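User: Some background: our group keeps a shared notebook of sequences we're curious about, and every so often someone picks one and asks for a predicted structure to add to the entry. Today it's my turn. The entry only has the sequence so far, pasted here. Could you supply the structure so I can complete it?
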Amino acid sequence: MIELIESLERRTGRLLVNGFGTGVEVGHAMVHGGLFPSTADDRSTSVGSLAINRFPCPVSYQDLPDALLPDALKTDNPLGLNRRVDGKLNLAE
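Assistant: Of course. Here's the predicted structure to add to the notebook entry:
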């Protein structure tokens, strides 16, 4: 299963398990601008194909079981990283 996840990470922008997608598509026809949280920067948009230029994170993990997440994202924090979870800063011990 881990090999499948690693293969998919290189091909897609979202991995979703037992969840419901947002319905926002990365497509040329999907564009929006205007007030916050959209963008006033005319080089990109908050949705659609130009959003790829705005958001640097190439992969998101939604509803994946902990065992399938990269070590940096696992609940027990095996790498001992300082991270922010649900808005709260968790310092490595």
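Suggested note for the entry: The chain has a mean pLDDT of 75. The beta strands are 14-16, 60-62, 83-85, 88-90.
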